[in-house]
Amino acid sequence: MRRRKYSVKRSPLKSWDRSRAEWRRAGWPGGQIRYIRNIRPICLACLAWLVCLAWLAWLGSGAELHAQALAQTPIDTEHDAQFWPDVQATFNLREEWSLFLFGTMRLGRDWATVTNEQLGFGAAKRFGPGLSTSLSYRHLHTEAVPGRHINEDRLFADLTPRRNLSKRVVLVDRNRFEWRRVNGQMMYRYRNRVQLERPVSVGEKRLTPYAAFEAFYDSRFRTWTRFQIYTGTRVPLSKHVTLDVFYMHQWDSRAIPGYIDVVGALWRLEF
Question: Which of 106, 126, 179, 229 is the most buried (most CB within 10 A)?
Fold first, then answer.
């Protein structure tokens, strides 16, 4: 008589060197996520994120010292020049799923002091090359005018279709819904950003210049209150780092200041 062989089901926590199929058979939910055999990319990503946050803090401290030196200078409440050094770290879990972190300390009042701080996280899903969606959260602290502090929590829901208008020109239409809690009051905004991109090759680099227009509908005033125009380019610096440099002009009929000129540098870290 042949003996039956019984296999012992080992806990997935005791074996980190398994394939994705073995993780699924073991019944562990981690099998639904791409298994990372080497922990080194995660450590590098966390280190890069901490370095970027330290860089933002250094910029903010320098700007605060400069603001103290210019404390007696009159504040222009109609126009402002700002610098936005944003950082976003993206972690690809599978081909269509990704998680991301976002942080920034934006300089305003003619680059003199920190007027806006943001920190958040989110998840994104791609439905092929022509459609993507994301859900994210951010906490913001704003002091556009000295002494006027605004604390805000935002929940974003994005739906972004892409369409090739020609062999080289791409149309991107981002539809963003914002649920906002501003100093304890609930409100929402709808934002529509239409962007044209045309990749070009410069030597061995493939740059992506773009131009964009974005309009904001605010539930508080029941009208379109803010408009922004962008021009910029994305520059791949390495396999994991892309720099998005842009200029933006904003006019807002209800905000202070109403007109803003922004130079931005969005660092995209992808792992």
Answer: 106
